[in-house]
Design brief:
By secondary structure, the chain is mainly alpha-helical. The chain folds into two domains: 88 residues; 48 residues, no CATH class. The protein contains six helices and no strands. Helix 1 packs across helix 3 and helix 2 packs antiparallel against helix 3. The radius of gyration is 39 Å and the shape is elongated.
Length: 174
């Protein structure tokens, strides 16, 4: 997984929508009420009797409780996923970088204020110049360096040939 994906997941976490929650609860309600209706029929309860209504109400409570537990589990899973992404993206290095940028901003604001200017004024004035300087620097570093001149072109005599057996200390330092 790339850092770009982590930033996207951090900014747009996958959450259960209200509509999905309602649909989940309704689906559970239908399934569980069918079971409780079958229980009422198996128990030979008279339809719409007080016992039948109590059983159906209990089915509603069971469905709601199961739905709440399922939604709580989904919420915890989402929180765990967000926490995992945050721990990968929002590292100590990230916070130190943000602090450094904040310190730089404060320093520029203080210097601008001493001259009666705002940070926005400074950015408007400096940004084009900083961009030009940075771009020129990078372009100059991309160019191949020119070869150095030959010593003869500079008026320097060529080095004498090394004697047989190499140079002695007397030859070099006398």
């Amino acid at each position: 997984m790339s850092r770009r994906d982590d930033w996207d997941r951090l900014s747009l976490p996958t959450l259960v929508t209200a509509r999905q929650m309602v649909m989940l609860i309704l689906a559970l309600e239908v399934v569980i009420q069918i079971i409780f209706l079958a229980l009422a029929r198996i128990s030979d309860m008279d339809t719409f009797s007080i016992d039948w209504w109590i059983l159906q109400f209990n089915g509603l409570v069971v469905a709601t409780n199961i739905g709440a537990v399922v939604l709580a589990i989904l919420a915890q899973k989402t929180a765990n996923d967000i926490g995992a992404v945050q721990s990968r993206v929002l590292t100590g290095d990230f916070y130190r970088t943000v602090q450094t940028i904040t310190d730089l901003k404060v320093a520029v604001e203080e210097e601008a204020a001493s001259e009666g200017r705002t940070l926005d004024d400074e950015i408007d004035d400096l940004a084009p110049h900083l961009y030009s300087v940075l771009r020129a620097y990078l372009v100059s570093r991309e160019l191949e360096p020119l070869p150095g001149p030959d010593p003869g072109d500079l008026g320097v005599a060529p080095a004498p040939a090394a004697p047989e057996g190499g140079w002695s200390d007397d030859d070099l330092f006398s």
